[in-house]
Design brief:
The complex is a heterodimer of chains A (113) and B (127). Chain A is an all-beta fold. Chain A contains no helices and 12 strands. The radius of gyration of chain A is 13 Å and the shape is globular. Chain B starts with a strand and ends with a strand. The chains are: A mainly beta (113), B mainly beta (127). The interface between A and B is medium-sized, with 27 and 24 residues.
Chain lengths: 113, 127
């Protein structure tokens, strides 16, 4: 199985500041024939289902604010929130869809400092 | 916009079988546009993919659950279902159904990212 490891486990950032969450896969999830990393980010607020933010490592889902951006390739990925808003308090998960079983990171809890 | 709603018993006894149904609106389980899948989340913990089904009837299951899981679809009712046998307390979780965007991997179209989610239904395994 591909293990997804997020860092940090929790993060506190001041409103308006940048938040950065990292995710590392135990093997490359870059598919050579498509030159794409099979990787996504989700946001889960308390009592709600997860929400897809980003697919293909850097493609923002429709309706997701542009302060959210994804980067990385191969085994190392980053989710950046450029200017933290109060509504961004949530747990963030990464996920690989390169090969089954399709696995998630353990989650990163983002709070306001 | 595809919407999904999970339904089923909230309490299941140990060793018995858990059965859940996901009703789809705004999309068709007979369409090639999505895989249809189940994910669960134990209390206070992270997300675990259970399995997925395509309009062809083809399925992918998490090997950790494969011996106990069956996912099926009923296109006439626009529903898909999860059956998990021989449950234990470790199966206590919120169960989500979701649409999954198919992605190309060589010659195959396999499950990709989870695009639309139901609200989830809590299931407790207890006597």
């Amino acid at each position: 199985d591909i293990v997804m490891t997020q860092s940090p486990d929790s993060l506190a950032v001041s409103l308006g500041e940048r938040a950065t969450i990292n995710c590392k896969s135990s093997q490359s999830i870059l598919y050579r024939s498509t030159n794409k990393s099979y990787f996504s980010w989700y946001q889960q607020k308390p009592g709600q289902p997860p929400r897809l933010l980003i697919s293909w490592a850097s493609t923002r889902e429709s309706g997701v604010p542009d302060r959210f951006s994804g980067s990385g390739s191969g085994t190392d990925f980053t989710l950046t929130i450029s200017s933290l808003q109060a509504e961004d308090v949530a747990v963030y998960y990464c996920q690989q869809y390169y090969s089954p079983p399709f696995t998630f990171g353990q989650g990163t809890r983002l709070e306001i400092k | 916009q595809v919407q999904l709603q999970e339904s089923g018993p909230g309490l299941v006894k140990p060793s018995e079988t858990l059965s859940l149904t996901c009703t789809v609106s705004g999309g068709s389980t007979g369409s090639s546009a999505f895989y249809w899948g189940w994910i669960r989340q134990p209390p206070g913990k992270g997300l675990e993919w259970i399995g997925s089904i395509y309009y062809t009837g083809g399925t992918y299951y998490n090997p950790s659950l494969k011996s106990r899981v069956t996912i099926s679809a009923d296109t006439s009712k626009n529903q898909f279902s999860l059956v998990l046998s021989s449950v234990t307390a470790a199966d206590t979780a919120v169960y989500y159904c979701a649409t999954i965007k198919p992605v190309d991997t060589g010659m195959l179209r396999t499950p990709g990212y989870f695009q639309h989610w139901g609200l989830g239904t809590p299931v407790t395994v207890s006597s």
